[in-house]
Amino acid sequence: MPLVLFGSQHRWRSRAMEGEEKTRNGGEMVKLISAEGFEFVIDKKAAMVSQTISNMLTSPGGFAETQLGVVTFPEISTPILEKICQYFYWNLDFQRFFSLTFTLISCSIA
Questions:
Q1: Distance of CA 32 to the CA centre of its chain
Q2: What percentage of the chain exceeds 90 in pLDDT?
Q3: What pTM, to 2 d.p., does this model score?
Q4: Which of 11, 54, 56, 72 could in theory staple to 65 by disulfide, Cβ–Cβ 3.0 to 4.6 A?
Q5: How many other β-carbons are positioned within 10 Å of the β-carbon of residue 52?
Q6: Where is the SKP1 component POZ domain (predicted)?
Q7: What SS3 class is residue 25?
């Protein structure tokens, strides 16, 4: 199965060692698997941008996704899942700007 790491530098990286998908730079990693079996290993913080993935990874029911940190998307193709991963990191980078924008504009001028 092809595997890539999507890091905080926003560049694709090939997996260099076996345990790297669990932690990288001290952070937790999760694996997202596309319909074709392509595996994207991303920071858990980035994956938590999605409320759906967040629920899958933190649900108290003891589901496999929660225990293993692996989420399979049988209906999502590889190119689409790649764009989704890119969006997660984009959202993390620019999230602070969105919150600032809404607090700086008063309702009277909006």
A1: 8
A2: 42
A3: 0.68
A4: 56
A5: 8
A6: 29-90
A7: coil
The per-residue pLDDT for range 41-66, each reduced to its tens digit, is 999 999 999 999 998 888 887 778 88
Task: Flag whether 94 is in a domain.
Answer: yes
Q: Which phi-psi region, left, alpha or beta, contains residue 12 (left: φ > 0; alpha: ψ -120 to 50)?
A: beta
How many domains does the structure of the chain reveal? 1
Instruction: Report the CATH number at residue 21.
Output: 3.30.710.10
When pLDDT is averaged across residues 84-101 and rounded to a whole number, the result is 80
Q: Is residue 109 part of a domain?
A: no
- The pair of structure tokens assigned to 73 is 């998307």
Structural domain that includes position 42: 3-104
Q: Which of 8, 2, 30, 29 is nearest to 86 (CA)?
A: 8
Question: What contacts 87, CB < 8 A, 6 or more positions away?
Answer: 49
DSSP for 36-75, please give it: T--EEEEEHHHHTTSHHHHHHHH-TT--HHHHH-EEE-TT
Inside any domain, residue 110: no
